[in-house]
Fold these 2 entries.
Entry 1:
Amino acid sequence: MNTDYIIEGLKEKIRGLKAETKFQNIGRVVKVGDGVSQIEGLDKVMAGEMIEFSGKNSAVSGAIYGVALNLEEDLVGAVVLGDTSNIKEGDLVRTTGKILQVPVGEALLGRVVDPLGNPLDGKGATEAKKFSPIEKQAPGIIERESVNYPLQTGVKAIDSMIPIGRGQRELIIGDRQTGKTALVIDTIINQAGEKAKPVYCVYVAIGQKKAKIAKIVAELEKAGAMKYTTVVVASASEPASILYLAPFSGCAMAEYFRDKGMDSLVIYDDLSKHAWAYREISLLLRRPSGREAYPGDVFYLHSRLLERAAKLNPKNGGGSLTALPIIETHAGDVTAYIPTNVISITDGQIFLETDLFYAGIRPALNVGISVSRVGSAAQTKAMKKVAGRLRLDLAQFRELAAFMQFGSDLDEATRKRIEQGKRLTELLKQPQYEPIPFEKQVIAIYAGVNGYLEDIALEKISEFERFLYHELETKEGETLEKLRRAREMTPEIEEAVKRAIGEAKENFKVSNSAL
Amino acid sequence: MKINPKQYARSLVEAAEGVSEKEERILTERFLEILEKNNDLKKLPKIILEMEKISEAKSGVKKARLITAVELSDGAKKEVALKLENVFKRKIELSAKVVPEILGGMIIEAGNEILDVSTRATINRFKQALSV
């Protein structure tokens, strides 16, 4: 039975092969090296077309492809998508008549692939049936609608004060080692809880260490997130051309779900390295350089990528693509060229600061200067109710921060505000790989802003929080479910929540004094 | 100012249009002097190549190469040349080469166009399709 199936498969493939008796436009390699090549001839090539190099061993190891980027008067400048050591001067180059395409579809979920769609996880070929060009026009104005449904990241500080909606572009910006990747991984893991409206994730790793990527994939597997995630990898050792293509490939894979009326999330980690790779290619292709040696169209590079993230109106399927680009700054300089470019493109930014990180505030979000331009349009009613108070309390706390030095020399009101602020800050801290579903977040923040944490010692706040969640799970499962379904704090639910928090506090005090 | 071989070739061919043989020789000498002055004598081989391309384009005769695994008869070659003339609408000057590695069929190279219906290429296509 098995052999019959194999034979049928082969017969299909052979039948599918059509004899090609038409002339192909060719050229010959004049220069090759550093990942780029100059080709003479190829007079009918189109800009951005895929070309095929027939180098040494190409019959054995498979054809080497390239993309024609520079169409000059007599020469074609192309980036080589592969090892240039197999190409020599005088080699034949053919046009393929195709723009660069990648496999897309459900078959890509759970896989780790390179920007050309080749599998990297050793699980065999991707059985993708559909191919999509990596460069595509963003949806027009008429096809869109404003963002109206939240993308729950599972990170309390973000979901309450810098909420992200489905279809938004939110930039995550910070120095190295401030927890940017940790935030996005927690966001991906949190989508496991979105059963009603699932979010399909694509994580694009650009220029990162293979060891780090392996760790990320392992964490996603452990959390069961790989079921709905595709990882596109262009690691640090890949040629600049592959790094340049990676975000566009990832976007094409995520767009598949957007265009089918589903919600998807794409993460570009990180676009700084992407800009470096593009600069490298442009300089090698002798394009004129501008500020910081970046080519003149480096803004267009990112703007056309990020414009493809959109919320489509119901007439066009109602799907969405949310983009979370990451930019790495140096010494907190957000006025550098690439950071300012991407800040002006995205619908808000999340600033992560090294000082906060080392002061123990993790996630190291600077809520004061972080912004989400979509704001409360992307929040559940329940969260909106508690988040407004949270923002206010923390803003007042920040203003009074300088007075913390005086300690006991303050009036009662100020002292209370400072204590409240300290407790809220403590509440917003969160360990890595532990995203919290929104209903639990709402209850925890409700407890915080309504003074329930006043009489709990500062260092016991996170312990109490965990205790509270445990109590809710075991004794108030129904309330949690009601809140999750209704997405707003009805008076009935509010009563149940107040009761639950009160009880949890009692039990907490008891268990603590017992120690 | 950098002048590429194509521009040199065009300038000489256009300057030498419709002149007598004696004048042609004088023009060529002057051309070589200019090349020397511009330090571009090393571009001469490329310039000659470009001039050949221009004269070929002008004469309306297209050069084509026919590569086969075994030697074709003169009649067969004439047939191929005729078919190509229909395709390109120009007179074809066919040169033939025998390359046993292609195993069968033929490869036709004409300027920047190539038609590869060799057995080797077909086998490679099969190999690619079946290996996925």
Entry 2:
Amino acid sequence: MNELIKSENGYMDLESPVTDELSPYSASYPVKLLSNSIKLKLAQAENIVGNVYRELEKTTPLVAQVSEATKKGYRYVVDATESTLEAIESGRIKLTTEKSGKLYAQFREANGHYGSKLPIKKDVFAKGIDPIQMANALQMKALQDQVQQVADQIAVIDLSVREVIQGQQNDRIGLYYSGLTLFLEARNINSSEMKKILITQSLRALSEARFQLGLTMQSDIKYLADGKYKLEKGKNVELIDSRISNINQSFAFIHQATMLRAGIYCNEGELSAMSTVLNEYSYFIENTVAKNASFLAQCDITDNGTEKGVWKSRAKLKLDVSELSKQLNASDKTIYLGVSKENE
Amino acid sequence: MKRNKGCGNESCEAHKKKTTYKVSEIFCSKCGSPLVYICKDCYTQLPDDTEKYCVRCLGNHEDKKNNAKKVAGQVGKGALVVGGLLITYGKKVLSFAKDLKG
């Protein structure tokens, strides 16, 4: 099943190369944006690890090996006085990123507790590797498998919504296209300030589209579940079909808006925000789709109610982003380092 | 109300041919998968045995009933109209016929 999905929806296969530009108005564009952004972040993570290693080999030939540092495959240097470093014979150093974004190192003392925080020196590396960027990149790399799992699940839904998208119009869908257009314009703007403003507006439009469509969808599901279509004699099937069509349309654009928001955040390097968006989507699937999947399958003429049917396969999307979110949102990003005797 | 069971395995021949089974049967005779309750009309899988039809097919049956009632109502009205016309004009028709004969 996964291999089939990958071949049918190659955009979410993170091992495939970055795809060329599609038309932004193509139904595949949002998931392609998300996929490419993730692939680029993973590639950057790979490069950063490589760069750190190369820099350290050049500047600090004498490095005390600590088993964790060896496993992680990188080394780093703390801005401490030589006497502090000399005083440390061996042991572990914890690298902490605070919410403010500053990076500190703490040494483990004899009593097993970590001592005072020491600021990390950014300009140790000749090529200007940002330590926060490094911490994020390494984390991204470590989470690669989880990210691929999320991508695989998204691919299942994405295939089923594409056909619904074509030619649909209403004001909420207009909000989605407004968000998409603003993002595309932002990409072509030179002024960084204006770019930020446009991206913010784009995210807002997409968020509004997503939640308005979500409410519409819930309202339509309630209409069917309450049997209100029975009030009009002789038109039950017509009313059921009409509402199901609306529900499918709403779901398709909710999916698109979510993927686009996640893609924009990932593109901007905001991985925590991306995981928040995916988490929210997973919650929506669980509470709106999964709860009503059996019922909706009975109402939908295109669904036969089996596990591979439209609604039950959508219900299975439990984007297991909880672990991903926890790690990305943790204020402490711990990286174990080796001790270097040369800090300049 | 009599329920139907069917094979929930989409790749099974019994599912493709929409083969129905008795409620007492548990496994598909073709593929061995557990049987599920299905809609009598369209073979859509049902969550339990409370209904014989899926929501849509049930709606379809209701529509047919209601439409049949409407038609019956129309026919009834039509019969009344014809009957009324006969009563109204019936005597004249009879006397005209008598004149013609006479």
